[in-house]
Amino acid sequence: MKPQNWVNPLRDERDKRLPRIAGPCGLVIFGVTGDLSRKKLMPAVYDLANRGLLPPGFSLVGFARRDWADQDFGQQVHDAVREHARTPFKESVWARLAEGLRFVPGSFDDDEAFARLAKTVAALDEERGTGGNHAFYLSIPPAAFPTVTQQLAEHGLAGGDQPPNVWRRVVIEKPFGHDLASARELNRVVNAVFEEESVFRIDHYLGKETVQNILALRFANQLFEPIWNANYVDHVQITMAEDIGLAGRAGYYDGIGAARDVIQNHLLQLLAFTAMEEPLSFEPSQLRAEKVKVLRATKAVGPFDQTTARGQYAGGWQGGVKVRGLLEEEGFAPDSTTETYAAVTLAVQNRRWAGVPFYLRTGKRLGRRVTEIAVIFKRAPHLPFDHTATEELGQNALVIRVQPDEGVTLRFGSKVPGSTMEVRDVTMDFGYGHAFTESSPEAYERLILDVLLGEPSLFPANEEVELSWQILDPVLEHWARSGKPEPYAPGSWGPPSADAILARSGRHWRRP
Amino acid sequence: MIIDLPSTTTSQLNAKLVDLRMRGGAVALGRVLTLVIATDDSVELEDAIEAANDASRMHPARIIVAARGSRSAAPRIDAQIRVGGDAGAGEVIVLRLYGALARQADSAVVPLLLPDAPIVTWWPGHGPRNPAADPLGALAQRRITDSAAEKQPVRALRARAEHYAEGDTDLAWTRLTLWRAQLVAALDLPPYEPVTSATVTGQADSPSTELLAGWLADYLRVPVDRVKAAEGEQGIVGVRLERDSGPIELYRPDGRIGTLTQPGQPTRRIALQRRSVSDVLTEELHRLDPDEIYARALAGLRLLKARRKAGAA
């Protein structure tokens, strides 16, 4: 045990050079043959190793239904790293990492496989000094969670059976259920084996620098916070658009739809960051307390047939390519009511945001791939210019571009050069890439490191997940009762009913 | 794009920079600092610019190179502006200063500094004994020297310890970061016992080894032995921290792979390759406030010296 009064004599909190290296530990990935694992997780692990942030002796165990030996697995990881890693490939770094690669073949209901896993993990503690600390990354369908967590518990791999200063953590990916009831059930299943503080729910948006920068922008500056309220803000638009369709993803997407897939997690988290009050500190518990407060105050505004919209992309031409509509995509029922576009109107019922609508929208096969938060300000109350002078002046806006082209845009009016007074919108642009780094770490790098360090700030807690479903459930129930989604042309910005939501109050969607 | 402006003045240079921005917008991106490179007009100049360009991809900067040319020549400035593909993520202004101007580099640099942005001065080769008192150093919030590039590295380092001012830093210190990180992390593990003494082995004239020993001496307050490495071994070779239950040892004989041994843990191999100049410069530009830990490591050099004498006596 660590004595109470032990202070590391070499540690100095002012020492900002020292990287946060995780203590001795290993990572076990279930579903290691999947796309996510190949394209994101394994490259992220290598990038962390390359940046010197993994502990010496770090081990990576893959678990999947493949007849592989450790070397075959090593080859797979090698190929994935070669193809997808962000940082340059260095043989010396790879050689160190490769020493810690293990593979356990088996299926989730195979007792013997889990016994082998337990043995492998114990052997790693012995050979590599991982100290009994392991994170289990469940990159698998949620339906398999109960089986796997149960197996982990039965084979003594879960947290409960470990000595006091040894940790076991579990990492899970969305979807966290499909409504409030199923989310609660899922939490119950996972929490039965792993305590809530050892559960890390990945929302990769929170690993993005630009999302963390929302906190810096709002709370480290004097400039924005005074106007960040209903006195000055007219409304807020949060958009996540993708230009790709759903070919090949029917199994996951059919019956889920855009609202469950994106609004419930990513967009509501972005809303929480945008609307929350200033936390007392950046302690994980303080940050969560403020997010929970703001989510608790958030409600979907009705009547839903006027404040929400959903759509399904039709076939047609998009960006020079002929694409199929959702109903013609392979795997989708020809009468599927799964929405590929969803827009909702939310209200945050507190003094800061009273009367400010938050419009959230997401969709597939839209104009381009973009995620952004646009805070649109009220018009100046009195303009000493005549009408013609300000005809082209829009509302001031602050846009946080989450991806791509990360940065912040500020839109305001400026005089057009010339002998007449004429005011027109101009933009001031901050590009994250320009001002800082061309190679900011991938979201998964940051999040995996935080799991290994046991730093939970950037992971939604189960209360946040349940509150998000509470916000969205009434809308989903309304949609389930009201027929089919409206078709929209591929490459457009959604169905006409989406424009109607804002038009009713004289507003319009920003073209991102 | 490279634009040569022979025998010019800073006003002409500034006008040209504004003109470039108006026409191309090439240099209109957000720059976070001005990096002044103080050097001689020699072959090392291009290496320094290349490293700075690399670092500017992480920290976009206006890079001003003040290259001292021949002092006996007629006083003049030969300038060069590099933007776009020849300048990383910022712009590079090379000033070749001749005659009396070679001693008055600050007069040529000041008009070209970015408004408001912090200034960092870097001496890639031989630097002043007292960086904060140097005219180009006095301009800057942060002064980066490189003791390893001096003819007598350890002596230069000790001079800098004498003249230390807030904002000083040295690339010999930056090269240590990976070592320090491993040692700090090793002490975070059981058994939680105090260190009783330490040994640092390295090349006789390796300033990084000196600093590592100084850092340990100041933070641990135990006797630190500085041992000279055998022929052929480069830079820092090893560190050994003695504790009652057994030593922590980090050993890197080949300059690439380190071996970490400590009681209760299997031996581990760690990639500890020597870092490139652009890599350490990038780390340096990450923070622009005084580095108190470096100050303490410099202070620790005195403890070392005193003990060595005491041992000899």
Give the % helix of chain B. 25-40%
Write the CATH architecture name of the largest domain in chain B. Answer: 3-Layer(aba) Sandwich
Beta strand % of chain A: 15-25%
Biggest pleated-sheet summary of chain A: 10 strands, mixed
| Helix/sheet category of chain A | alpha/beta
Sheet of most strands of chain B: 8 strands, mixed
The proportion of strand residues of chain B reads 25-35%
CATH class of the largest domain in chain B reads Alpha Beta
Whole-number total of structural domains of chain B? 2
Please state the oligomeric state of the protein chains shown. heterodimer
Protein structure class of chain B: alpha/beta
| Morphology call of chain A | globular
Q: How many DSSP E strands of chain A?
A: 18
Largest interface: A-B, 39 and 44 residues
Q: What is the fold-level CATH name, i.e. the topology of the largest domain in chain B?
A: Rossmann fold
Low-confidence stretches of chain A: none
Count of helix runs of chain A: 15
Mean pLDDT of chain A: 88
Structural Rg of chain A: 25 Å
Summarize this structure as a short list of keywords or feature phrases.
heterodimer; A: 512 residues; alpha/beta; Rossmann fold; Dihydrodipicolinate Reductase, domain 2; 2 domains; ten-stranded mixed beta sheet; six-stranded parallel beta sheet; 18 strands; 34% helix; 21% strand; globular; B: 313 residues; six-stranded mixed beta sheet; 10 helices; 27% strand; disordered C terminus
